[in-house]
Amino acid sequence: MIRCLIIDDEPLARQLMESHVRQVKILELVKACETAMEAFEIMHREQIDLLFLDIQMPGITGLNFLKSLKTPPLVIFTTAFTEHAVEAFELDALDYLLKPVTFERFIKAIQKAGISKDINNTTSNFTAEDQAIFLKVDKRLVRIPHAEIFYVEAFGDYIKVITNKATHVSYFSLNKIIELLPDQQFLRIHKSFIINLRHIQFVEGTLVRILDKELPVGVTYKEALYKKLGQE
Hints:
This protein is of the alpha/beta class.
């Protein structure tokens, strides 16, 4: 579990972030704070792994609050302004979210906290089997481990994620999901297909065999595929 704090002086912004956090099982919300000082007191009592930190706040800004911490946790900034992005990333922020924060953008950000770095900001505690994406399927947020995904197929305004257990249909796009998947493991081979390279059975010309299906390789994607497979 990743224990997190939300720090934002705007009630509606706090409520939106609380809603996002509570939909993701890997996150445990310790408190949604109105001020940096309230958060500071909690951080002296509780182990906090991740901050969702607003930048423009009365009293002390999010940037100055982060600078004041001797051993800061991971931080994802939330703000209505773009001008602080450079300084935020200079402070090693994981991400910089513009308000109002959409759920899909939120998911992309928290995957950096849960997968690319561990909660202590050292080496990862997450094995390859732990790495996953979260997709909204029907009215549920479903966790789909990377290792279980065979391929993803565009389906109108939806995508179909084919795994070794089920086929998940979600209102999402290939352009968006490819950003959530690690590029060392997944590759887009066609305008309608993303594949898990670990599940390729064979490649022949402009066809890739995965499971019992032969998937087409688009002309503009062929070179990248063969390069990825060491066949330049």
